[in-house]
Amino acid sequence: MIDRKYRGLLQGLLLLLIVVFAIYRFVLPGSNDGDDGVDCNWNERVSTDALVYVAHAKCRMACRDIDERLVEKVYLHGELNCQKSSVKDGKRRYALEKRDDRGDMIRIIVEDDDGRHVIITAIRLDKEDRCSCS
To answer: Cα(30)–Cα(92) distance, rounded to whole angstroms?
Structure first.
């Protein structure tokens, strides 16, 4: 049995933990997955023939040794990283990640432009690059 003087202390500590969790989960920016408006259950992929590549993505792909076939593989089979997904200018951007045949983690950023899926960039994580794309 818990002594009476410790019961109040334990109840106070429990209340403090609940308040701290609530602040972390609901008040602090970036502490809630999907808080930025991105649906973390995104499954609206289109045919890879319909993907659009911006010039920046093409440049990044070239200097990072990432071809369209690899981008398409990440697009179709990659896992969504909600923490790296965002909303920019009212458009949802999704970060999809998958390991390639070399074991490197590849991330692509796909923007949903009213149902048209635009490849914004492609990144070979854990590898330094010297791209000068703008």
So the answer is: 16
* DSSP string for 37-98: S--TT------GGG-EE-HHHHHHHHHTT--HHHHHHHHHHPEE-GGG-EEETTEEEEEEEE
pTM, two decimal places: 0.69
Please count the other Cβ atoms lying within 10 Å of the Cβ belonging to residue 110.
27
pLDDT at 14 over 60: yes
Query: Which one, of 40, 37, 45, lies nearest residue 117 by Cα?
Result: 45
In this structure, how many other beta carbons lie within 10 angstroms of the beta carbon of residue 52? Answer: 13
Q: What is the pLDDT of residue 33?
A: 43
What are 82's two structure tokens? 């909600």
21 in helix, strand or coil?
A: helix
CA atoms within 13 A on the CB side of 12: 6
Query: How much is the pLDDT for 39?
Result: 63
> pLDDT per residue over 23-74, tens digit each?
777 666 554 444 455 667 777 788 888 899 999 999 999 999 999 999 999 9
Tokens 């999704």 sit on residue: 94
